[in-house]
Design goal:
Blueprint (H helix, E strand, L loop, with lengths): L28 E2 L29 E4 L6 E14 L7 E7 L16 E7 L3 E8 L16 E4 L19 E7 L6 E7 L5 H6 L3 E7 L1 H6 L6 E11 L5 E2 L12 E4 L2 E2 L2 E4 L3 E8 L8 E3 L5 E6 L2 E9 L9 E7 L8 E6 L6 E2 L5 E7 L22 H4 L7 E9 L6 E3 L4 H6 L7 E3 L4 E7 L7 E5 L4 E6 L14 E4 L4 E7 L5 E7 L2 H5 L3 E6 L18 E2 L4
Parallel strand pairs: 1-22, 3-6, 5-10, 11-16, 15-23, 24-27, 26-33
Antiparallel strand pairs: 2-3, 3-4, 6-8, 7-9, 8-34, 9-10, 11-12, 11-13, 13-14, 16-20, 17-21, 18-19, 18-20, 21-23, 24-25, 27-31, 28-30, 28-32, 29-31, 32-33
Length: 547
């Protein structure tokens, strides 16, 4: 259906105040635009060259005396900056800076997305996050305390980005990451309690790649292993980011960004490429497809490689999900343009150009045919622990309902919220599971109106079914986020470990998370008193810049 332009008041900063008492219908809504930019300032598709986020360089390397493993040390500064997104205007952002690959000095420029961290399985990492942001958000006014979550990592609770484990401006925290899991695409982002949506939307997000020997052998590497961080945004008249979450229902911008650039164009050789696609939007879901109708080949999901590659014409991609996709450009002619388009899904708000993501222009450069991945699509990849689990191994089935409370207007999981967790002094849980237990968790979304990307921290899971039917082809791999669509009940199979402690479950439509769709579970704990991995107290931030 088509609606008239929604009337909201975008202020001249990162925030928006408006007439957002708007209840969006359950079908897809289309409108011309939402940004308040003059026509000459509004970006158009395919006017910018594609760029990738730079690689973060380690500040030093050491050995962990406990196990003899290599440890890479990194430094990331959270800071305010300015981005060149629009044709004439500058856009204030919150972003990351650090020492970049092939550089020796710390960069002072905040960038979005943040620098990519790339390392091998078995190399541990200590990432120092220094909060050098303004004390309060430039427009919204909340304290800019942050909590960094490495999404997809089996981290100890005190290094997991627990929402209430915040680092205030002028402090830093050393996050320890074990990196023992199979190769996968992870990402880091702010998880600060009740303000994750605005902080992540403002730019606090970046990719993190873990490699292993099997993945390096089977899939494209280097220039042909390409990170795509996709997000959407709306803009105020002066070029600043607008923010309107429709009474905490979600934010849908009219500009699609790929690695911080609107609808870019990438030059590609006539060979197979691998794309690590992260939907970094705080609310918008995507349905990517190629303009040629040729297949997208799914080779990886959130938790690593799929057992068997899956060819799809399009697929449903919620916020925070990562899909590794092969695209075969060998069949195209020099000079041909192929678009990566967006078919969208229910309960998005779409505008003039949100049906486009980016474009590829095929060039006639000589292809290195000594690289066996240039023309090879593997017929099989690797099994994983999550995908090898069998339902008969489960010792318990738990059922959770996701909905909005009619009285409080808060988003809930089984009627619980993060406010309940805080009020309980972080003791309230929706489940207390044994270490190494295998369970089935069901999430029911029968309240109508909205989809919910549900993220379970610590573990990977297997999607058993959706409304009694098998998982979609694109999600037949290890996952940590599941798209729970309108009227859907999903069944997930998972093993809990390897750590004991408290971990979060939440909706990754981030305005839902902030208001207040987040709860926690515990693993292998009988009593929270004296918890050696207390998510807030075990590794508190330290004062100073940490440089």
């Amino acid at each position: 259906m088509t609606a008239s332009r929604r009337q909201v008041l975008l202020l001249g900063g990162l925030g928006v105040m408006g007439a957002s008492a708007l209840s969006l219908p359950s079908t897809l809504v289309e409108a011309k635009s939402i940004s308040r930019l003059a026509d000459r300032d509004m970006p158009r598709p395919f006017q910018r060259a594609f760029t990738e986020a730079p690689i973060l360089k380690e500040t030093s390397t050491g050995i962990d005396p406990a196990d003899g493993k290599t440890v890479n040390y990194y430094f990331l500064r959270e800071t305010a900056g300015v981005a060149s997104i629009l044709p004439r205007l500058s856009t204030p952002i919150l972003g990351y800076s650090g020492i970049l690959k092939n550089k020796t000095e710390l960069s002072n420029k905040a960038i979005f997305p943040g620098p990519t961290i790339s390392l091998d399985q078995g190399t541990k990492a200590v990432v120092r996050i220094s909060n050098q942001l303004p004390a309060t958000h430039p427009t919204a006014g909340h304290l800019l305390s942050t909590s960094t979550h490495l999404h997809g990592s089996a981290s100890l609770p005190q290094f997991d980005g627990y929402a209430s484990d915040v680092t205030n401006t002028g402090f830093f925290k050393d996050y320890q990451y074990p990196n023992f899991q199979p190769a996968r695409t992870l990402w880091y982002h702010d998880h600060g309690v009740h303000f994750t949506a605005q902080n992540a939307y403002s730019g606090l997000a970046g990719q993190y790649h873990m490699h292993d020997p099997i993945e390096r052998k089977l899939l494209p590497q280097g220039n042909f292993d390409v990170a795509l961080t996709i997000s959407d945004a709306m803009f105020a008249a002066n070029g600043a980011l607008g923010y309107d979450d429709n009474t905490h229902s979600g934010l849908w911008g009219d500009v699609i960004l790929v690695n911080g650039q609107p609808w870019p164009v990438m030059k590609v050789q006539k060979r197979i490429y691998r794309f690590r696609i992260l939907n970094c939007s705080i609310s918008r879901s995507l349905r990517p497809t190629l303009s040629t109708g040729d297949p997208l080949i799914i080779v990886g999901t959130d938790g690593g490689l799929v057992p068997v590659p899956q060819q799809v014409a399009n697929y449903r991609h919620a916020g925070a999900e990562r899909y590794e996709v092969l695209i075969d450009f060998r069949r195209y002619t020099t000079g041909q343009r192929i678009e990566l388009r967006n078919l969208s899904n229910k309960n998005n708000v779409d505008y003039d150009f949100t049906n486009k993501i980016m474009a590829f222009d095929v060039v006639g450069d000589t292809v290195d045919t000594t690289d066996p991945t240039w023309n090879t699509v593997p017929t099989a990849l690797v099994p994983s622990e999550a995908m090898s689990l069998k339902p008969a191994q489960a010792t318990k089935t738990r059922h959770f309902r996701v909905k909005r409370d009619d009285v409080t207007n808060l988003w809930t999981i089984d009627s619980d919220t993060w406010q309940d967790v805080i009020a309980s002094e972080y003791r309230r849980t929706i489940a207390d599971v044994e270490l190494d237990a295998v369970e089935i968790w069901e999430f029911e979304n029968s309240s109508g109106g909205w989809f919910h990307p549900i993220h379970i921290h610590l573990i990977d899971f297997q999607i058993l079914s959706r409304n009694g039917r098998p998982a979609f082809a694109h999600e037949r791999g290890p996952k940590d986020v599941v798209y729970v669509g309108e009227g859907e009940t999903v069944r997930l199979l998972m093993k809990f470990g390897p750590h004991r402690g408290r971990y979060m479950v939440h909706c990754h439509n981030l305005p839902h998370e902030d208001h207040d769709m987040m709860v926690q579970f515990s693993v292998g704990m009988k009593d929270f008193d004296g918890d050696p991995n207390h998510p807030i107290k075990a590794a508190p931030p330290q004062f100073g810049p940490g440089e």
